[in-house]
Amino acid sequence: MANRIPRVPVREQDPKVRAHNFEEVCYGYNMEEAMLEASRCLHCKNPRCVTACPVGVKIPDFIERIVAGDIAGAAAKIAEDSSLPAVCGRVCPQETQCEGSCVLGVKFEPVSIGKLERFVADNAPAAEKVAAPKGGHKVAIIGSGPAGLACASDLAKAGCDVTIFEALHKAGGVLEYGIPEFRLPKEKVLKRELDSVRALGVKIETDVIVGRTVSIDDLMDKEGFEAVFVGTGAGLPKFMGIPGENLNGVFSANEFLTRNNLMKAFLDDYRTPIHAGRKVCVVGGGNVAMDAARTALRLGADTTIVYRRTEVELPARKEEVHHAKEEGIEFSMLTNPIEILGDEKGWVRALRCVRMELGEPDASGRRSPVPVPGSEFEIETETVIMALGTSPNPLISRTTPGLEVTKRGGLVADEAGATTRPGIFAGGDAVTGAATVILAMGAGRKAAAAIKDYLKI
Amino acid sequence: MLNPTICKMVVEAPRVAAAALPGQFLIVRTDEKGERIPLTISDYDRERGTVTIVIQPIGASTRLMVDAYSAGDSFADVVGPLGNASDFVHMSEEELKGRSYIFIGGGLGTAPVYPQVKWLHEHGVPVDVIVGARTKDLLIYEEELSSACDNLYMCTDDGSYGFKGVGTAQLEALVAEGKKYTNAVAIGPMIMMKFSTLTCKKLNIPIMVSMNTLMVDGTGMCGACRLSVGGVTKFACVDGPEFDGYLVDFDEAMRRSAQYKAEEGLANGK
Lengths: 457, 270
What we know:
The complex is a heterodimer of chains A (457) and B (270). With 457 residues, chain A is an alpha/beta fold. Chain A has helices spanning 15-18, 31-38, 48-52, 59-67, 71-79, 85-91, 98-101, 104-107, 113-123, 146-157, 174-177, 186-198, 216-221, 253-260, 287-298, 318-326, 395-399, 429-432, 437-454, and strands at 138-142, 161-165, 203-205, 227-230, 236-237, 250-252, 279-283, 302-306, 330-332, 335-342, 348-361, 367-371, 377-380, 383-386, 390-391, 424-426. In chain A, strand 1, helix 10 (146-157) and strand 2 (161-165) form a beta-alpha-beta unit. The mean pLDDT of chain A is 93. In chain B, 30% of the residues lie in helices and 27% in strands.
């Protein structure tokens, strides 16, 4: 019986060692391990894992090819639905999606779908270059993050002439500036994924800020783009609105991570400055909070995560929480900052917090935290990193007439990604606010389908 | 070189030149390992596809820019234009009518004054300019500005050229002589913009200042450029860079600007 085989554990870098380097934490499966793990799949007739995947990867089908030892075949199967398997295998919240729906998980442990996807992506031969389609419909994609890449791939496969415009100097969006090297190696993994998107004929133009360098209307009227997809991702970092947030030593997680990841502050020969200090508090409980905390730790700081609910409610992937703990990060749960205290020179000295307890469930069904009166206390710290999500970037909406935004500033888009202007589509964090890589990819794919309809392909 | 420490560069960047407006800035990354350096645009030529930037070596990256790059070289990246254009660019003729401007440019900040002054002058708005520096050798843009404004006043702290004293003293002197200005704009070191604002408050002239804060991406993502304006947190890159001087918390902005000084010191030694 296949399900008698326990889930094959994955080899990882020793927590004590990796707490001091930026090399990848997880080594991934080798062929033997992958084939054994793949043999656990029950090949359900009605696979719930596929339904639970935002891009609908045909999971049992690719796993079947691993069992047969056909890695190239498995990769081709995944590529039908996902353009970033090496990324998704590493950063998707599998426990709430594919693996969370795996039938094996009811009685035993679910198939390690994420690790298998990663194995396939890392070991498949590089994609063959396809000649850029000539005379296809011209489509502009704004932003080279997960939403834009997924949308671009699907459109290129449909014969469109696709150009991605990226504001930063490197492509990848959050995969480049946000997710750290130890979770998603840039050269080994991300570059390869971007190369395979380029191999489909997609052009990527960096250093172009749509809304500043060029407007959407210019792209459509003067440069001949027939449709535009806006996948500009996260926007302005959110702060708590408590006293002391503009003290020196208070950073948004976006700034801290961008300095370290995009600008490579952790490497000696790069000139980017970064400030962690001896003691860092990270406020928030999502993946970004975990990434910021584990980065600070690797830069040599004692690091504490401050979160107002309990560990059960932490929105981060379970694996990240587990890794963070192994590495020695402290978790101060049911703790809410109320003020950041500074020294006489205006630098952070301490974080003043209040203890919380869980009260009645709110509209979302989550028990909302309420402060415990009289429980204020201080945590000594040199640096405070706010990882509270982002609010949408106003650049595109302000410079594109007719593009409506919601009360929260996100672009108004329907289920398929159509905005309030014909020919302009949107998806990912720019629409929903901060979410995950895979949800952004799902939105990119839906928009690609809508763009194909719009262009009558 | 415009003077012993300030260097002017004309950079080929057609997309940036085509879109640039007075008041905006751009970001340069010299090479793969460099920082993203925000610099105010000092001029643009849409036909030739060039933008002009003026640099003074302060940190490791600007030092490298001046020392290691000369005519004909390329930077790894030039991105922009960033930030909003000066408010008057979007005003109607009606709104501009009756306005008369005084600009105060301090040191390096004199260069980005130029496109604004030129724009106003071309649109028939009366505009005077005060340029200040410590000493004669450090004054820049005299020739360019003299043909782009109505009256140009050069000042040096040590009296080696023009008016002896700081720009704000020159402004007070002009107003005492009977000059009337409806609007002021100051661009220069934060301390100079702070004092320009104090002087303008005294003289009851509204003033805009261009906040050259720390920045990483410059597109509204990192929040490094945040500052308090009227008690509200704003982002210089998407909300600015120009703000109402009366509302800016300059002391906080100056403190925040020094945030990476210790690390910068290390980079300088690298």
